[in-house]
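Reference record:
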Amino acid sequence: MSQIAPAVEDIAPARFEAELRERADVVVLDTRDRASYAAWRVPGARRLRNAPEDELAAGADDLLAGIPADARVRVICHAGIGSRRVAAALLDRFAEVLSVGGGMIGWSRVLQASEVAVDAPFAVVQLRREARGCLSYLVISDGEALVVDPAPGIAPYLDEAQARGARITRVFDTHIHADHLSGARELAAAAGATLHLSGAALRRGLRYGDAIAPVADGDRLSLGGEAVRVVGLPGHTSDMTGLALGEAALIGGDCLFTDSVARPDLEAGDAGAGEAARQLFATLGERIAPLPDDTLLLPCHYAGGRLPGPLTATLGEVRGRVPELVLEREAFVARVLSQLPPTPANHLRIIAVNLGDDMPADDAARLEVGVNSCAARRDWAG
């Protein structure tokens, strides 16, 4: 399987995901090693099989037993290289064999866009990176657009804004992410937009501070004929920051989710997690508790998985389903710390890259693995 045949064709990640959503009759062969497959795999395939490349090379018959000759086969690996070798070897065995372009990484960057109904003078589009549970937003007013927490792969944001007759004028990262790479700098440069992070990100050692317009709690950012308000939400990290669309909606970053509160240890570490949890408790009480029950929470993460539409909840709904919100401070801290899932894979390296460290071209394919685990819930760990 060492030669790549010219006849091997890729299927684009977005088309592959569309097949899965449509429940197409395809066989998905995942050629990664068994540990990687067990930790993170493509959900929703009608027929999914782990067939590691090295095991296939040693003898494919047992691994492929039961797959009919007329099958339509999709081969996926980590970054789309090994899958092409395997696909080349299987071209004569099955009716159709395509390699998933970019592998699991390419598939994990597919975005699903849904408009969010908000009782405010803004159009809001939620863009879901469902493979990793990451949520980003396009907020539009009078032809100007602001993008919050863009993922790597910026074309969908540019395309969505253009389709809505808007120009991206601002890009906003809610904090220095620990579980995924940020597309904010690339998007701001491509769109000629102003890049915003909290001033607290500078104190974390941001290496591109001269390229941002820092913001602080209470600042107002103009957008078309309207403005959004910056809301400091420290706790998950010291620089965690959200945006309020009046009292109609809060883009809450990683402070509060529809079913959980944030974990406090990804910046602070084990030693500082308790104090960060106390800061989170104060943030929830002072910044979010005063907001009305009918304020719509627009979180920036969830546990991952395919959704039929945008993920939102009113603060009233969140208050009814997140038990930590009714606890006293020390009980809150104890509960949060007791529920911490494992830290995201490669999180220290991801933080360093998002702070501005150089990243070799192949790093992106190695750094982002699995779903996020930003909540104080073990069942978010993937």
